[in-house]
Amino acid sequence: AADAVRAGADAPLAPFTAAGQGAAALVAGVGTVLVFLLRERFDLGGGTGPAATG
User: Fold this and answer.
1) 23, part of any domain
2) Cα 36 to the center of its chain, rounded Å
3) Residue 9: its pLDDT value, please?
4) Res 49: pLDDT
5) Where are the alpha helices (DSSP H) in 1-54?
6) Residue 33: exposed, middle, or buried by beta-carbon count in 10 A (0-12, 13-18, 19+)?
7) Quick check: is 10 in a domain?
8) What is d(CA 28, CA 25) in angstroms, rounded to the nearest whole number?
9) What is the residue range of 35's domain?
10) Measured distance between the N- and C-terminal CA atoms of the chain, rounded to whole angstroms
11) What is the pLDDT of residue 53?
12) pTM
């Protein structure tokens, strides 16, 4: 068991691998899309944009 832990210590951390970078980009993209699609739902109508005039 100790050998497995020592062998894993040389491996790069997940966020610094290509797969980790891809996963982070995917999460950021999904978050951006959700904010874009749901922004009207949470708008309180205090602005001057199209949502305030409708």
Assistant:
1) yes
2) 13
3) 64
4) 61
5) 2-9, 18-38, 50-53
6) exposed
7) no
8) 5
9) 17-42
10) 64
11) 53
12) 0.52
Half-sphere exposure of 11 (CA within 13 A, CB side): 11
CA distance linking residue 26 with residue 34, whole number of Å = 12
- Distance, in Å, from the CA atom of 52 to the CA atom of 54, rounded to the nearest integer, reads 6
pLDDT, one tens digit per residue, over 1-54 is: 555 555 566 777 777 899 889 999 999 999 999 998 888 777 666 666 665 555
Q: Which residue shows structure tokens 């199209």?
A: 50
Number of domains in the chain: 1
d(C-alpha 19, C-alpha 22), whole Å = 5
Listed in sequence order, the residues at least 6 apart from 14 whose beta carbon sits closer than 8 Å to its beta carbon are 20
